[in-house]
Amino acid sequence: MKRVRTVFKPEQLERLEQEFLKQQYMVGTERVDLAATLHLTETQVKVWFQNRRIKWRKQSMEQKAAKLSQFGVIQPASADSTDIKDHEEDTVDGKGLFATKNIRKGETVFVERPVVSSQFLWNALYNYRACDHCLRALESAEENAQRLLGNSSLVLPHPEQCGIRKDLHQQCPRCQVMYCSAECRQTAWEQYHRILCLGPSRDDPTHPLNKLQEAWRNMHYPPETSSIMLMARMVATVKQAKDKEAWIKTFSQFCSKTANEEEEIVHKLLGDKFKGQLELLRLLFSEALYDEHLSRWFTPEGFRSLFALVGTNGQGIGTSSLSQWVHACDALDLPMLQREELDAFIDQLYKDIEKESGEFLNCEGSGLYVLQSCCNHSCIPNAETSFPENNFLLHLTALEDIEAGEEICISYLDCCQRERSRHSRNKILRENYLFTCSCPKCLAQADDADVTSDEEEEGEGETDDAELEDEMTDV
Ligand SMILES: [Zn+2]
Ligand SMILES: [Zn+2]
Ligand SMILES: [Zn+2]
C-alpha cells in the first residue's frame, strides 16, 4: 500500500521544527494540541516527528568523524611512557610528540586515561547505557545487538566472549547513576560526583544541574562533539579537590586561544542558531556550580575559554560491548568451518544493524587527554587512537614503523575525509581546528588547483521529509 505524502506548509514546518528543538518526542495531549493548532492530524504530527528523528540521527552518523583536537602549545605534566617525549614545535596546530626509540607498526605507543571524561547527553538519553565514570558499555553484547537491531529475540553465539560483568555493576546509592564497578563508583565519588550527585532531585527539572543539561541538549544536537558535563566535571573536580591548584594546572595545560579564535570555536560548537546563547549557558552553569576559587571560569571571558578548551581538546570516546565481543570472537581458535560460519554471522549482523541503526553504534562521549592532545595532525598519520578495552582508556597505536626522532602524528580527519583534495581537507581543518595543514601530503599537493573534491559537492542537499516518510512507513 502506497501512502499519501503529506506536503507541509512552510509555517507548519517552522512550528514543527521549533517544537523539535524543544523535544524530540511529542506525545499525549501536547501532540493533540499541536496537531489541532497546525490543522494536521495527530498521525501526521507523529510521523513527522519520527522522520525528523531519523534525519537527525542520519546527520549525526555522517559527521561522526573522530573528534581529535588541538592546537596551541601544550605542556604535558608527565609522560606515562618513556617511549615518547614532547618538543617545543613550530607547527601551527599542536605541539608535537616525538618517538624516542624505534616503534614497530602495530605496536601500542601508549595507553592513556583521561583527566576527565563524560558521556554525551543525547547518547545517554537514547539508551546507550554506559558506566557514568569510564564509559564502559553496561549492556551485554547480546542486549546491545538486540537493541541496535530492534530484535529482542536475537541470540549471539559464544556468549562467554562477552566481557560485561553485570555482577560487578554498582549504583550511586543517592542518585542511582550506574557504574561498571565499585572502583569507578569510588573514583567518581572522590573526584567529582560528590558535587554533581543529584540525589533525590535526579528527575527534578528545576534542579540547576538538570536545567543546565536540558539547555545544552536543546542547543547542541547530535553529532555531539563535546558536552557541558565535561566542563561541569572539571569544575566539580576542582571544587572537591584538596589541592585545587594542582588540578587548575592540569587543566591549564590544554591550549588557550585568542578571544577571536574562541569566538570561532563557540560559533562552531553551538552553530549559527545558538551562538548568542553562550550567556544563557554561562548563567545556568554559574547557578549550578559557582565557586569562588574558580570565579574566573564563570566570567563571560573565562566561560568562553573553558568552552573553547573543551571544544578543541575534547577527544571523542566510543565504547561498545558488541565490538568487544566481535574482537574476542576474532581471536578464537576455531576449526575452519566454524570460523567461516561465525565470520558470516558477524558480517550479516553488522549489515542488519546498519540497516536498522546506521553507524550510530557506540556509547559516545568525550574526554581530555594530556598526551593525546599533544599529538599533531597529519593527513598521512603514522598513528591512530582507539578504545579497544570498551572504556575510556585511549590506545595510541603505530600505523607504520616509526623511527626514533620521528614525530608521531594522528589524523583529525576520518579516512574518507583524508581522501579528499588538499583544499577540502584544509577547509575542514580550518573550520574545526583553526589551522592549515602543512604535512608532507599537503605540501606535495600545494600546487593542485584549489578545488574541492567531488564528494564535497554532493550530500549538501537535505533529504526532504516526504522522502523520509516513505522510508519510515515502509519499515
Ligand atoms: Zn566504569
Ligand atoms: Zn549520585
Ligand atoms: Zn595535510
TrEMBL record:
DNA-binding region per Swiss-Prot/TrEMBL record: 3-60
Annotated source species: Patagioenas fasciata monilis
Pfam family, one: SET
Catalysed transformations (reactions): L-lysyl(20)-[histone H4] + 3 S-adenosyl-L-methionine = N(6),N(6),N(6)-trimethyl-L-lysyl(20)-[histone H4] + 3 S-adenosyl-L-homocysteine + 3 H(+); L-lysyl(36)-[histone H3] + 3 S-adenosyl-L-methionine = N(6),N(6),N(6)-trimethyl-L-lysyl(36)-[histone H3] + 3 S-adenosyl-L-homocysteine + 3 H(+); L-lysyl-[protein] + 3 S-adenosyl-L-methionine = N(6),N(6),N(6)-trimethyl-L-lysyl-[protein] + 3 S-adenosyl-L-homocysteine + 3 H(+)
Cross-referenced PANTHER family: HISTONE-LYSINE N-TRIMETHYLTRANSFERASE SMYD5 (PTHR46402:SF2), SET AND MYND DOMAIN-CONTAINING PROTEIN 5 (PTHR46402)
Gene3D superfamilies on file: Homeodomain-like (1.10.10.60), SET domain (2.170.270.10), Tetratricopeptide repeat domain (1.25.40.10)
Entry's EC annotation: 2.1.1.359, 2.1.1.372
Name used for this protein in its record: Protein-lysine N-trimethyltransferase SMYD5
Homeobox domain location: 1-59
InterPro entries: HD (IPR001356), HD_metazoa (IPR020479), Homeobox_CS (IPR017970), Homeodomain-like_sf (IPR009057), SET_dom (IPR001214), SET_dom_sf (IPR046341), SMYD5_SET (IPR044422), TPR-like_helical_dom_sf (IPR011990)
One term under GO cellular component: nucleus
